[in-house]
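Write out the 3D structure for:
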Amino acid sequence: MDIYCAGFVIILVTIFFAILIYAIRHKSYSFKTIWTENDRNIEAKLRIFMRKNPRSEIVVINNSPSSETGKILKKMQYDFPEIHIVSY
């Protein structure tokens, strides 16, 4: 089990640094990581954040991809390609 956790952490770190390099190349330096733990207002929070920070890259860590939150995040990712979803 520990090897799977270590692998997951390595994947998350790799994704984070890939996004960081992309942001530096495109001169968008603002980052926000959002955990979706049963958040009913995730869509409103993301829309407000994107309105205030239009050049930001957002990493959303979704710990329940089969829930309603997962569907909302997919919709938001379609509207805002700057949103990156990591589900587990």
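The beta strands are 31-35, 57-62, 83-87.
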